[in-house]
Amino acid sequence: MNKKYKDEQKQEIIQRYQDGESVASLVVDIGIPRSTIYAWIKQIANTPSNTKKVSAKNFRLLKNRIARLKGIIEIMKKASCSVSDPLELKLPALESLYGQYSVHMLCEALEVPRGTFYNYILRNKRTNTWYAKRREELRLQIQQIYDDSHQIFGAAKICAVMKEQGLRVSVKIVRELMQEMGLVSIRQDSKGNYDKEMRSYKNYLNQQFEATRPNEYWVSDVTFFRYNENNYYICAILDLFSRMVVGYKVGKVNSTQLVRSTFQMAYEGRQPVLPLTFHTDRSGNYRSLTFRMYLKSLNITQSFSRAHIPYDNSVMESFFSNLKREELYRTKYRSENEFKKAVDKYMVFYNEQRPHAKNGYKTPLKKELDFLNKQVLLELKSN
Question: Listing from the earlier edge strand, what are the strands of the sheet with 277-280?
């Protein structure tokens, strides 16, 4: 039979909670079910007549307690077990929510000692595949947000973006993973770092867009196109010798991954053996540490346009202008698949059928074939 409590008793218990005593200790001391105490707290919080003035400090404390209470209720709903279940069921249930809520809140929700939970987590870190998979998923999401912010966002801002995307994760976990990944946000001393980095971003082309052989100079950029309320980014790489498109990708996010996958496509397709210089503007995806280290591992020399000087990469500006005027602006695509197929078709047309003034009105493919034929004849004569 449910015991009835007088209003005075309820007020006394709620007052103890408001003075800082936890619900768990009240349950042990008085023997009242947790759900009953939570119901009283919620009732008092929603009572219009409860107009007693509180100090700013007490208001913040009350606000924090309400937030904690909401979090505990969420945990109890999401957990695959209840407070009364044995410890061996509660620990895995809390582990599945680890990183989405604070450890203090998790343990309070299912009445698990924090020390016990920490020991369980540390013991399973190396062998728990779920734990490893969860952290790897978070790493990918953190890297994406970090790249999209041009390496500006720190742990707190990345955590806020993840929550906007419906992902529950703590700032502590984000900061820990960022440290593991070597991701550092821009600090107050960024001006000095900026000046130092700008001096390292050398422009080896200086608007001299000529090459004596294939795979001597590649240029690249990313353009934006909006279709059917969707944003698309097209990354392309051209060889300055023939103006051939040697690599391109279409993505929904302008990220380091987009430019890296495009370069990888070009590099694997062309397999350059002689020194290669890769020229771009100073967009964050080309300047990211991960991309620069990737190019360095391939012994590629990186060249950058000067800041706010589009003419330093005018070949790419001209190419994207042609792509849009000759194809993208002229067609109403019925699907994303049709749009991507149109891009594929244009790239083939550009390389194999479209004469280029810079090539003496030869197609890029014809220009390269003529060069290869000359090389073969020279080798035959030398032999």
Answer: 244-251, 230-239, 217-227, 277-280, 301-304
